[in-house]
Amino acid sequence: MASPAALPAFGADAPLYWADACRHLMKRDRVMKKLIPKHSGVSLQSRGDAFVTLARSIVGQQVSVKSAQLVWDRFVVLPKKMVPAQVLKLKVDDMRGAGLSARKVEYLVDLALNFANNQVHVDAWAEMEDEAIIAELIAIRGIGRWTAEMFLIFHLMRPNVLPLDDNGLQNGISRCYFSGEPVSRSEIREIAASWAPYSSVATWYIWRSLDPAPVAY
């Protein structure tokens, strides 16, 4: 059993459930028992508002982090404010000039329309189940299940999301539990059975095992 001293301290921005989650994971999982104390003082943190977070995810699809940041830096200065109504006023040529592909321009416009027309129920998300929110988000062009799951983890800070298709989670579980051997979705589910109801937290620490720098999404 891990001693109380092994549990790292967390900042004021940490989710309210984070310390309880760490205690649960360290008690239930041998890898977490060793991994969590290595990352003292850091935790999941939410960033931005819903529209901006999803817009950034679209801009970042299928390009490197560095390239995504360069395009975002050019795009973010185009509207007076990064809100749906202002994005809908932008000219396609200006958006393309920022480095966005024609497809990503279409996706960003569709995202803005969904928010402007209240087709996503932002105010109700706090009371909605994870799968109901995912269903709303993947109805928007350019947003798939993985992006919706990242949104649940990083923006809504939902505690029990298991992103089975995430490469980092797959690689981390392979290294930490299977000595580098490839893992199947069923094997990931088997490992994660002991993580519930804190799969998001365990996933975050698995990512830390690959890259100690906290993820900002």
N-to-C CA distance:
33 Å
Query: Which residue ranges are poorly predicted, with pLDDT under 50 across at least 5 consecutive positions?
Result: 1-5
- In angstroms, what is the radius of gyration? 19 Å
Mean pLDDT: 90
**CATH superfamily of the largest domain, please?**
Hypothetical protein, domain 2
Please outline the major beta sheet: none
> What is the CATH top level name of the largest domain?
Mainly Alpha
The ordered H/E elements are HHHHHHHHHHHH
- Which strand-content bin applies to the residues? under 5%
What is the CATH architecture annotation of the largest domain?
Answer: Orthogonal Bundle
Q: Supply the helix-strand structural class.
A: mainly alpha
- Classify the helix fraction into a percent range: 40-55%
Task: Give the strand tally.
Answer: 0
CATH T-level fold name of the largest domain: Endonuclease III, domain 1
Task: Provide a descriptive summary of the structure in words.
By secondary structure, the protein is an all-alpha fold. The chain has 2 domains: about 10-40 and about 160-210, Endonuclease Iii, domain 2 (Orthogonal Bundle), CATH 1.10.1670; about 50-155, Endonuclease III, domain 1, CATH 1.10.340. The protein is built from 12 helices and no strands. The protein is elongated, with a radius of gyration of 19 Å. Its EC number is 3.2.2.21. Keywords: DNA damage, DNA repair.
